[in-house]
Amino acid sequence: MATKKRKNSKNNSAIGLAVFVTVMLLIAFGLLIMLRKPETQTKAKKYFTYPTEYEEYVIKYSNEYDIDPRYIFAVIRTESSFVETAESEVGARGLMQIMPDAFDWIKFRLDDDRDITFDNMYDPELNIQYGTYMLSYLYDQFGSYELASAAYHQGMNAVQGWINDGTIDPEHFSVAENLDTMPSDLTRDYIYKVMRAFDKYKENSELEAEINNE
């Protein structure tokens, strides 16, 4: 009988030790989660909301070319999700997905004599400068953010053609009014995404303060 009691005692000790170790591991895991929470929140803010990376360049060139910086953020989010090394299947590069022919056209329009090539479109500042200039030009040309977005996506000649043949009425074309007259489903979806992001950036009070230097 004495031998059996000693065995039971050993078994109880082993079980107690296992329970203790398990509890300590659970506590340690909980502490790790708590310590990593700020990092998790930062990642969520970056990837699942409406980020404002490269704010310095966006505001700088938006001021220079007279266009709302929140619209530029919306285009960057839609085009590349703020990945500066992004490249599309058709060869568009960088944050604002500049195409080779667009690069040449913008460089000519800006009379940019710097020693830069299309390869420099992976550079965030240059890419934002060129993309912002082009969007400003398209906005002045077509008179609305929706049609500027359409021209940025489909090409200004295509949009001008739709206006000329009466397919699109530029006086009555917006997300809330006759967006369904857009002949291209892809371009219509693109406009919707840009304008939805634009509205979200308008709700960002911190960004509003930065824009107004408050």
Going by CATH, the architecture of the largest domain would be: Orthogonal Bundle
Overall structural class, as computed from helix and strand content, comes to mainly alpha
Q: Gyration radius, to the nearest Å?
A: 27 Å
Question: What is the arithmetic mean of pLDDT?
Answer: 83
Question: Which runs of at least 5 residues are low in confidence (pLDDT < 50)?
Answer: 1-7, 26-48
| Strand segment tally | 0
Order of helices and strands: HHHHHHHHH
CATH class of the largest domain: Mainly Alpha
- Tell me the distance between the termini: 84 Å
Number of discrete helical segments: 9
Q: Biggest sheet, in brief?
A: none
- What is the quaternary state of this protein? single chain
Strand content: under 5%
Q: How many domains, as an integer?
A: 2
Q: Helicity range of the residues?
A: 55-70%
Shape: globular
